[in-house]
Amino acid sequence: MTSVVDEEIINVARELIAARFKEGCHHIAAALRTTSGRIYSGVHVEAYVGRITVCAEAIAIGTAATAGDTHIESIVAVNELGEIVSPCGMCRELICDYSPEACVVVLRSGQPANVPVKELLPDKYSR
Description:
127 residues, alpha+beta, Cytidine Deaminase, domain 2, 4 helices
């Protein structure tokens, strides 16, 4: 775990949501860096029936998985205003399943901070 916040992935996510925001479709963007140094990103895909909406973090992880590169070093999500948002519970599970040592960029005292995903997901379910 690194204490240095990955500003590059924050900027990638902000640029993506600025370019792809669409009311009722894409309100959140995510970007992640894998341990290989590559960056993957995605926007959330909203559906009229909310149960089938897919989070931006899941889309970014899926993009990385498609490339065969799923060891996440750090990940961040931003809203349509470019503000950092914390991942939902399902995304925390997904991030932890793929990379239990990953850091998630969240706001702490109004500032971006790296937080181990396990800290965001205490007592994680396991098989």
